[in-house]
Write a structure and sequence with these properties.
Elements: E1 4-9, H1 21-29, E2 34-40, H2 46-59, E3 63-68, H3 71-84, E4 92-96, H4 109-127, E5 136-139, E6 144-147, H5 151-161, E7 167-170, E8 185-186, E9 191-192, H6 193-206, E10 210-213, E11 216-224, E12 227-234, H7 249-253, E13 260-261, E14 270-271, E15 274-275, E16 287-288, H8 294-298, H9 306-310, E17 323-329, E18 331-334, E19 338-340, E20 357-359, H10 360-367, E21 388-392, H11 410-425, E22 430-435, H12 445-453, E23 458-461, E24 467-469, E25 475-481, E26 486-492, E27 494-497, E28 501-503, H13 507-514, E29 541-543, H14 553-571, E30 575-578, E31 583-585, H15 595-599, E32 605-607, E33 614-616, H16 626-630, E34 636-638, H17 643-653
Parallel strand pairs: 1-2, 1-3, 3-4, 6-7, 6-18, 7-10, 18-29, 20-27, 21-22, 21-27, 22-23
Antiparallel strand pairs: 5-30, 8-9, 11-12, 12-17, 13-14, 15-16, 19-28, 24-25, 25-26, 31-34, 32-33
Helix pairs in contact: 1-4, 2-3, 4-17, 5-6, 5-14, 10-11, 11-12
């Protein structure tokens, strides 16, 4: 017989300031099978936990209902409390009267209290039928997978590998390094980006516990936390990397030399069809671009491919084919980075009208000593020297027509580039910085901003209404300076747009493969923005860096180490306790139609060839409920969330 205790949390004033808690306690105490009801200001605290434990012992309670905030946040806390008191942890039901009640009825105390009563009554009705479930143990695979080899993926891989665990690092480009490899200097200290990044890239390449899979993509992920089955597609490079020594002679003789736009240099330079992405690439091995190579496109490259003729090591291999690699890992860290909003999408800034209107990442390659102009900045339209440059901050960010969020790094990247430009070209250069608000939030950033503000650069608070190209190719725009209340007309030789960071173009596909969630902005969604910023909705999969949202390099590195620690917490264990709140099949109801097998995203279902009955793999099943919704014969049942229990809850408030 159920002996139910109801415990109501005030959550400070979050609940107590809206819901009449005293009335709710009185109502709860009068419900069937409720033998004790109490309230406490903070039920999730140690004293609150003691209230529950003491009541279980004193009143011989065997079912507990906690009415507080979201179970997503605190259900494990209260499960541990009742387990400490000797109850099965699954004899707990929670009613969310904060998010579902007080937060949506702030000015309606009577209505909020009425709704809270309904939620409590439903929880009590369900608690009557809760089963005491038993967890089971499953073995853990001790290897890890990191997807993306920018600075976040590199840091996470090194942290994991340094603990002695095997790490597979998958990168879709031919080299690791990511966006940071494209930068010249990093703010606010103006350290050389390559000087910071390259040693870490080399550490990854040399580490005995890291297996580097570049020019590869994750195509399929099955299994669950502690035991993921991963398929990785390794694209053909058409160069035998075991033989290639990176000498570069093949690139020098390629018939497409200096005819292919260089992606690493943001299209400002040219390369050959056989290439390395940049001089410090890791691995420093050549790759043939199949979309540009004459031999791969037409089967003919003159009388004989010159790259093949010149390679004394015989590394060129046009017969290479893509390979599928199967991995078995216990946890996954996703660090796939970001793209930038296409500047051509913002017609008002005239990006497509002139080669002298560029993005800040293009400018980064232009000013870099390893860039296409060896750091010499000039007009791209005619090669003329420049006398004025304008930076347009928030070009598409904090904008209802494009991206509503702040890109976080845009202000500081523009200030850094303005500083470097002044250092390169002297005091006579006119620099205009058009801004909405300067956001210098990081350590040392405000000091850096003041240093530039005290110089000769012009800070104009506003955005250009439209950028136009004059007949002589010069650029002109009007801007209203809200700090001086003046309308200005400005001529510039080069205009640098600072667009927002956006999710990678393959993020949606990867989220489907990994079964993780995207937010409204398209970035991968964390499990909880405060308490679990690296966790995802799929246990064992963690996110790090700009795939979660825009952030600067120090924040990226910190989150990468945090995600690695989370991943390590799984693969360092011998066994994991599996959640028993999963699906099962009633053999008397199952007709063997196989619908549940088809819809299961975790491959946790199969039809028994002898009995024709669907069976559940308890290790793979996560209790998502997809099979239950799809089953036409009602044979699929979710433990402690049966249809009968749900109907009882509905009956309580009808």
């Amino acid at each position: 017989m159920a002996r139910i205790g109801v415990f109501i949390c005030h959550c400070g004033t979050n609940i107590g300031g809206v819901v009449d808690v005293d009335d709710l306690v009185k109502f709860s105490s009068e419900l069937d099978d409720v033998v004790y009801a109490a309230d406490y200001k903070y039920m999730c605290s140690d004293p609150g936990g003691k209230v529950i434990k003491d009541a279980i012992e004193e009143h011989d309670l065997n079912r507990i209902v906690v009415t507080s905030c979201s179970p997503r946040m605190h259900e494990p806390t209260f499960q541990s409390v009742i387990e400490d008191a000797g109850l099965n942890r699954f004899c707990l039901e929670m009613a969310n009267i904060r998010e579902h009640c007080s937060w949506v009825h702030k000015d309606e105390k009577e209505e909020a209290t009425k709704k809270a009563k309904d939620l409590v009554a439903m929880a009590v009705r369900k608690a009557n039928t809760l089963e005491a479930l038993t967890s089971f143990q499953k073995d853990v695979v001790h290897d890890a997978l990191v997807i993306g080899a920018g600075i976040a993926g590199i840091q996470a891989s090194l942290d994991l590998a340094n603990t002695g665990k095997k790490v597979y690092l998958v990168e879709r480009e031919p080299s690791i390094g990511g966006r940071m490899a494209q930068l010249d200097k990093t703010f606010p200290t103006l350290d050389c980006s390559s000087c910071i990044l390259t040693p870490k890239m080399m550490d990854v390449a040399r580490h005995p516990n890291i297996e580097l899979l570049t020019y590869s993509e994750v195509t399929e992920v099955d299994g669950s936390v502690g035991d993921f089955k991963v398929k990785v597609k390794r694209k053909p490079t058409y160069v035998d990397w075991e033989k290639c020594n990176g000498c570069g002679e093949c690139g020098q003789v390629c018939r497409m030399k200096d005819k292919v736009l260089d992606k690493f240099n943001e299209g400002l330079g040219k390369r050959s069809a056989i290439y390395v992405p940049f001089q410090q690439a890791v691995p420093l091995k050549y790759t043939i671009d199949p979309s540009k190579c004459l031999m791969l496109l037409s089967g003919k490259c003159g009388d004989s491919p010159p790259c093949q003729d010149v390679c004394e090591l015989g590394a060129i291999d046009y017969q290479q084919e893509e390979k599928m690699i199967e991995l078995n890992v216990g946890s996954i860290v996703v660090a796939t980075g970001y793209d930038m909003l296409e500047a051509s999408d913002m017609y008002e800034y005239g990006y497509s009208q002139s080669p002298d209107i560029i993005t800040n990442l293009e400018f980064e390659r232009l000013i870099s000593s390893s860039g296409p102009t060896s750091g010499h900045v000039h007009r791209l339209s005619d090669g003329e020297e420049i006398k004025s440059v304008s930076f347009v901050l928030c070009a598409g960010s904090r904008d209802m027509d494009h991206k509503e969020y702040c890109c976080r790094i845009g202000c500081m990247s523009a200030l850094k580039q303005a500083y470097l430009l002044r250092d390169h070209m002297g005091e006579d250069l006119e620099i205009n910085i058009c801004y909405t608000d300067i956001r210098s939030f990081g350590k040392g950033y405000e000091e850096f901003y003041r240093r530039i503000r005290d110089g000769k650069s012009n800070f104009i608070r506003g955005r250009p209404s439209e950028i136009n190209v004059k007949e002589d190719g010069k650029l002109i725009y009007n801007i209203f300076d809200t700090s001086t209340q003046k309308l200005l007309e400005i001529n510039s030789d080069i205009i640098v747009l600072v667009p927002p960071l956006i999710p990678r173009n393959d993020s949606s596909e990867l989220s489907r493969i990994l079964r993780i969630t995207e937010g409204a902005d398209g970035f991968f969604l964390e499990s909880h923005p405060k308490l679990k910023p690296s966790d995802t909705t799929t246990d064992g999969v963690f996110i790090a860096g700009c795939c979660q949202g825009p952030k600067d390099i120090p924040d990226v590195v910190a989150q990468a180490s945090g995600a690695a620690a989370k991943a390590m917490g799984i693969i360092s264990r011998e066994e994991l306790e599996s959640d028993p709140m999963i699906a099962w099949v009633d053999p008397d109801m199952c007709v063997g139609c196989g619908v549940c097998v088809e819809v299961c995203p975790y491959s946790a279902r199969e039809l028994n060839e002898v009995t024709g009955i669907a069976e559940v793999d308890e290790i793979l099943c996560t209790g998502c409920g997809g099979c239950i919704a799809a089953c036409p014969s009602n044979a699929c049942i979710h433990k402690n969330m049966t249809k009968q229990q749900i109907l009882r809850m509905i009956d309580e408030v009808i």
